[in-house]
Amino acid sequence: MGRLLDAGVEALATGGYHATRVDDIVRLAYVSHGTFYLYFADKEALFRVLAQRCADETTALAASLGEVAADDAGVAVLAEWLGDFLVLYRSSGVVIRAWAEQQVTDRDLARLGRDSFGKIAAVLTARIPDQDGDSLTSASLRATALLAMIERFAYVATSRDLGVNDAEIAQRLAPVVHRGFFRVATSG
Q1: How many CA within 13 A on the CB side of residue 73?
Q2: Where exactly are the structural domains of the chain?
Q3: pLDDT, tens digit, for every residue of 166-180?
Q4: Which of 11, 59, 96, 137 is the least crowded, having the fewest Cβ atoms under 10 Å away?
């Protein structure tokens, strides 16, 4: 089953959700169709397992973001969390992209994606400081914008050779995210 899931990730990364076929998965896993159907009813069932695994990891990632102070300690917290986000994206990017790009038509799978990333957005909303009496809607909008930027950045970082490793990417990105979203603007 593990080989099939790994092959599913590889096939989905190469061909995308709609173009990937069971034939592609079994070829990459070096197993027969019979072996595939022993574990999964179809490609969607395999994707459902990948999606649930991604949802579980996303929930854990959301819970792992501690308080983000307005000083260098806050930058360090963000660097560690962004590094963990990149790790998640490397292992589950195909699922995240399917959710983000609305490739999944199954309502339960789509809801799983919304709920999973909703948890991260909720944590970000709670962590981003209030700006002069912001409404919850404004804070939520900023958190959603930040999550969208992080997701697209992770896509670029994991799909291209940027010449730096994930830890360095997280270290360089953290001060930018911190300054743009976690430091309270002062007037004057």
Answers
A1: 5
A2: 1-40, 47-182
A3: 999 999 999 999 999
A4: 137
